[in-house]
Amino acid sequence: MAQELFLCNFMRKKIKQLIRKPWVKWPSIAIGLAVLFFLVLFASIYLGAFGEIPTKKRLTDLKQSQATEVVGRNGKLIGKYYFLDRQSIPFEEMPQHLINALIATEDIRFYEHDGVDNISLLRVFFKTILLSDESAGGGSTITLQLAKNLFGRKDYGYGSIVINKLRESIIAERIEDIYSKKEILELYFNTVPFSGNTYGIESAARKFFNIPTSELSLTQAATLVGTLKANYSYDPKLFPERSKMRRNVVLHQMEKYGYISKAKEEMASQQPIQLDYQSFSHNKGLAPYFREEVKQQTLDILKDLNGDFNIYTDGLKIHTTLDYKMQVLAEEAMREHMSNLQTQYEKAYGKHAPWFTNEAILEDAIKNSPRYSTLKKQGLNEAQIMDSMQVEKEMELFYWQGDSVQTASSIDSLRHYLKLLNVGMIAVDPASGAVRAYIGGIDHSYFKYDHVSHSERQVGSAFKPIVYTAALEKGIDPCTHYPIKPVTYVDFDNWTPTNAGDNYDQELEYSMEFALSRSINTIAVKVLRQTGIENVIAQAREMGINSHIEKVPSIALGTVAMSVQELAKAYTGFVNEAQISVPFYITKIEDKTGMVIFEREAQPKAEPAFSERTRQLMVEILQTTVNEGTARRLRSRYHLNNDIAGKTGTTQNNKDAWFVSVMPKLVTVTWVGNDDHRIGFSNTAIGQGANAALPLFAKLLQKMNADPYFEDITHAKFEEPSEEVVAVLDCEPSKRPGFFDRLFDGKDDEKKKFDKKKKKGFFERLFGGKKNPE
Prior knowledge:
By secondary structure, the chain is of the alpha+beta class. Helix content is about 45%, strand content about 10%. Strand 15 and strand 16 form a beta hairpin.
């Protein structure tokens, strides 16, 4: 016993002596202080000194910001509204090779630990604090990364990485207590950031490969998992070679840990990265003008609902009427046509273009520009503003060949944009009013103004079918012949309407069918006068036109200004049992759980805007416009054999070009012009509706004809007109008043024979091969 006591005292003495030695004393103190500091730091973090740690209760009800989806009629994603581009999906929609790629690369012990790899965490702590190694990094498990994704990091100055790591370790352990490993993987994949402000695997899959997560291949999954190491540096769009190298590292990790065979790794590593990149930004991507209109309508709907919904964060799903495939083809057709037309337009003007020669136009553009307004608010005088706006700098300008960064002044930029033509196009299902395609302008990044719903322009001869519909409803015989000679209307300031061309025999009278199909101005006014201006305006109202209409005879020539959408509405009745369909965009809205919070109600059957007889007559006459009249290039140049009725429109001084197509299951309206009303086309050959607006529709229909998907529309046929309609249209297109009656008195057969001969000879020489402007 005494011996043991002696030994203990001896050891205690030796230890004290050892501790007193400087090379032991100070390191021991340092370690002790470090451990104490660590414990105090951990306790302070745990107690919330560096920010509140989410409780288990809060973690059980994680509510993450989610993007609202806009989908087309077939469920195809069109776009999103978001602060953070995120779409949540269930674990079951994540392929197993995606899960395997993540675990093999990021956390091979994921199923074994409780959320924290303590050894790695201590390594980070001591390397950062004791060795000041800012690149220590590491130590992150999938659960720790999830904690970081959910609650972010703060800047605490020196030692931020340690404080944040400790906070995340506390949160991670709480997450592991609450959620299963499967649920943790689901949360992780729905919150992890990818490049381009994209969050979650579903958004990334649709952005880079245009497919849902469930359809990701092995190489696609490995590519996306590879970007998680540094989402910008390994962005497959920006750095394809670097991204491929990182993808192959992921594949190697999968082989290393037995998730794929060596042969499969080698085969997959040889495959190139093939992207189908989709932009869901507000300005880019498919149908940006349509999405903007849908957003505004959705905001109005949400205001009326009993619920606090946020379109940018609540993960709603907006079901729309847009046909994804048709919209793609429409935008392709628009780019093809407008780039070519812009070249014609500028070439025709040459050095005498109004954006160069008309100082008033440029001056107004300057004073209406945001840059001018900003400088004015800064207190600069006129001279100083102009000096500032002439300073050259690098800027990106829109060109059809591709956006270009150039050295230019603000005034140079304004002059450039003054010359650009713009466009509006809508395609509507006439039976319901559902909008199938929608183009509000040539490029939403540069031109925000929507030319479908918000712009109102004079419609020109596209208004004439409304005049003729009113005439038929008034009881005027469609075989009534009108003299083509101009008339001066003394009761309207001696106004004398004329025709765009002089290719007609001024001594002849022409039938209503011939006059409308050739868009003869003088006869349109005479038809209106006989019908009565009040009756024409009343008919326009019946056909859904709410825009202001002046009580003047010039409305027969289309001086009425209206939107593309409104004009489309007016024409729907011609193929919808004379009932007018109001264009609409949204069918229903779901919350993020799939519950329907809004659904468009079934619309009551509208009262017919005109008789069935008038409807059939107008369809026949508008088909003649396509087969023989101002829209005949649909047949001759574009070789379209579909059943089509239609009407071209050109306004005074060639400022607005229109074309309305009426098919049994689709009504399409196109408008082309300059945003500045004072700038028109330099000549009618280029600026008429048949040349400037019609080709956009023609190119779209050509593309639709080539795709069996659209057969229901492209193969649709007009119903056969009644015998009465056929009979009342069975008249000669023209006659010479009095002369033929005297020449062929009682000789009807000889008269018909002569008129047929005259029509095939004289009229072919008169119109054959020549442009027939309105």
